[in-house]
């Protein structure tokens, strides 16, 4: 191409501009004319930025020149960030993108690129959400907030939802997500207000009523939850989601037989949906029908093998069916389950309590292993019985447990170090090589069939004689401990007994009764005294909730214990005292085998199900059988 003849600069500029409009120019011609364009108008930043497109080797310098001429134009900063990203210079690219976001807060591409190179996961989600909101996709912005809520990044989610609602104050989807966020933050009043706003914004949308149903159901306000389902059903008659949720509500209310009807209808309509099969299996499990529960939970694992949150109920079904090897393997996914029970204080997911790798059970000379208790007090007592599997190993073990259990455990296992759990103080993990929850020991060590060693906390003969003499006052009588209530925040209906069902025990001769039920009121004591006679009722001289070592010694000195499925059951195992566990039809604890008299997980415990103890004398007969036995553990 020939060089343009020298004329007046305006004439030449017009010719160059005209040439650049031609899309048929070759790359070489385009570069030449862009050079002339920049030379003729050196004070115009756009000309240098355009030339940067034709000279990739000099693009960075040319864009810097454009920025110097027009520092407030976000486009030049953005183009420079793209060049820096291509060169792998992420730190400088982040600085450029930060300037773009300041100069043009509504430019969505800058948030997307900044999110792609952000090292922080929370920041990435926040930036991606901003990109979606600025890009005009309000639904995408709400979806971003949903992911942030799932990651427990509530502040970032709140910012995105506030932006969305500022642009569209009547966006029902955003109000619904805001209500879910408020519920997660336990601002229940705010959650209800936002659910109302979501419904008012679009009263014809059934999803808003279903979201409100979840809120009320989780708050145990079943009457209000039922009304929400009724409203949703008017909008979507015979809707599958309504049918599924109605069954779930009935199951949560402790009415599994009614829940099963809805659950089975749902699975007939959609047999290939994992959540529906999961619900059916859960209801069967609540009814104690283990084989049916296992069938549906196995189906769930086939339909959705990667949905880890659904594997816990498969583990429960396997364990209740006595398939302990597979059951303990699946039980490792318990951290992913969305349970209505109070969660464990320490956890592995979603935010691990300790920054340590999991111990695989291999022999490692000189390693320091941190074991820690999980779930409730009874679960910790049961799991401490697994420590006998670690005797003689080369590793050093520290065990973090409930403060009340430390004296008992340290006395029983002097070669281990026990640490009182204190969640309010930072925990030093630097001296440990690995960690493991206590209830993972059976799977980790490959001993799932009978992991608990009974009698591990039994005091010596001298201490037993001392406590026994104090209880009986040297009389030739037998002592039976009583428990009938476990305070569970949600599923208390599956753990309680009525005191009247124990009335038949009064027919046994030469028996004293010691209630070791925590939280007893004077009214409770009066009821027990009236039932058995005050002269036959022993009152503990220690706090049965806080003084666990004294409770263990008292239980060890008894002839037997009759109790509901409370923490007394694992305590009788540690104390080496036989027990009669009076169970309800719905028993969620996997250690109890439905319909069986005994469980390998609970040595020395005679299980009485409703079919076995329909009358008061049935419980008395079971206790008589245990008392007549000469062995410490008649049931194995």
UniProtKB/TrEMBL annotation:
Keyword terms: TPR repeat
One protein family per Pfam: TPR_8
InterPro entries per record: TPR-like_helical_dom_sf, TPR_rpt
Record flagged with keyword Glycosyltransferase: no
Taxonomy, superkingdom: Bacteria
Residue windows of the TPR repeats: 274-307
Protein name, as recorded: Tetratricopeptide repeat protein
Species of provenance: Nisaea acidiphila
């Amino acid at each position: 191409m020939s060089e343009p003849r020298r004329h007046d600069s305006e004439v030449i500029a017009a010719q160059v501009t005209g040439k650049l409009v031609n899309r048929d120019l070759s790359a070489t011609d385009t570069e030449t004319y862009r050079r002339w364009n920049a030379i003729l108008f050196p004070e115009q930043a756009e000309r240098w930025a355009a030339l940067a497109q034709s000279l990739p080797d000099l693009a960075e310098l040319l864009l810097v020149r454009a920025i110097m001429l027009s520092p407030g134009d976000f486009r030049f900063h953005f183009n420079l960030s793209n060049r820096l990203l291509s060169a792998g210079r992420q730190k400088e690219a982040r600085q450029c993108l930060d300037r773009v976001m300041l100069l043009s807060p509504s430019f969505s591409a800058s948030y997307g690129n900044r999110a792609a190179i952000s090292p922080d996961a929370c920041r990435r989600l926040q930036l991606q959400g901003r990109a979606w909101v600025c890009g005009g996709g309000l639904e995408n912005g709400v979806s971003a907030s949903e992911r942030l809520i799932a990651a427990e990044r509530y502040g970032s989610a709140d910012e995105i939802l506030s932006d969305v609602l500022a642009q569209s104050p009547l966006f029902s989807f955003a109000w619904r997500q805001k209500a879910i966020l408020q519920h997660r933050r336990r601002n229940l009043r705010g959650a209800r207000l936002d659910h109302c706003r979501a419904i008012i914004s679009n009263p014809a949308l059934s999803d808003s009523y279903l979201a409100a149903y979840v809120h009320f159901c989780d708050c145990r306000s079943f009457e209000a939850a039922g009304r929400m389902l009724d409203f949703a059903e008017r909008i979507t008659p015979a809707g599958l989601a309504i049918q599924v949720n109605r069954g779930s509500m009935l199951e949560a209310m402790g009415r599994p037989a009614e829940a099963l009807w809805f659950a089975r209808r749902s699975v007939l309509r959609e047999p290939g949906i994992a959540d529906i099969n999961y619900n059916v299996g859960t209801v069967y499990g609540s009814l104690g029908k283990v084989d049916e529960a296992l069938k549906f939970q196995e189906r769930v694992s086939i339909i959705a093998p990667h949905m880890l949150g659904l594997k816990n109920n498969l583990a429960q079904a396997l364990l209740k069916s006595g398939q302990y090897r597979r059951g303990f393997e699946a039980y490792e996914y318990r951290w992913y389950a969305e349970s209505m029970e109070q969660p464990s204080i320490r956890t592995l997911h979603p935010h691990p309590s300790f920054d340590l790798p999991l111990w695989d059970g291999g022999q490692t000379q000189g390693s320091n292993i941190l074991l820690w208790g999980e779930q409730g007090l009874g679960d910790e007592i049961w799991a401490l019985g697994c420590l006998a599997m670690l005797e003689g190993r080369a590793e050093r073990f520290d065990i973090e447990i409930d403060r009340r259990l430390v004296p008992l455990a340290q006395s029983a296992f002097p070669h281990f170090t026990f640490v009182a759990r204190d969640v309010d103080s930072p925990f030093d993990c630097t001296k440990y090589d690995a960690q493991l929850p206590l209830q993972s020991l059976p799977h980790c060590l490959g001993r799932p069939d009978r992991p608990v060693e009974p009698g591990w906390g039994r005091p010596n003969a001298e201490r037993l004689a001392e406590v026994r003499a104090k209880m009986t006052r040297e009389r030739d009588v037998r002592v039976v401990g009583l428990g009938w209530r476990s305070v569970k925040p949600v599923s208390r209906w599956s753990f309680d007994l009525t005191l009247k069902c124990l009335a038949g025990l009064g027919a046994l001769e030469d028996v004293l009764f010691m209630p070791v039920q925590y939280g007893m009121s004077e009214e409770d004591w009066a009821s027990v005294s009236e039932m058995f006679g005050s002269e036959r009722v022993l009152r503990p001289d220690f706090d049965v909730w806080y003084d666990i070592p004294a409770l263990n010694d008292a239980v060890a000195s008894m002839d037997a214990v009759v109790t509901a499925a409370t923490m007394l059951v694992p305590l009788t195992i540690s104390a080496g005292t036989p027990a009669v566990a009076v169970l309800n039809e719905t028993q969620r604890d996997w250690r109890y085998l439905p319909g069986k008299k005994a469980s390998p997980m609970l040595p020395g415990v005679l299980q009485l199900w409703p079919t076995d103890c329909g009358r008061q004398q049935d419980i008395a007969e079971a206790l008589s059988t245990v008392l007549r036995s000469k062995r410490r553990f008649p049931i194995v």
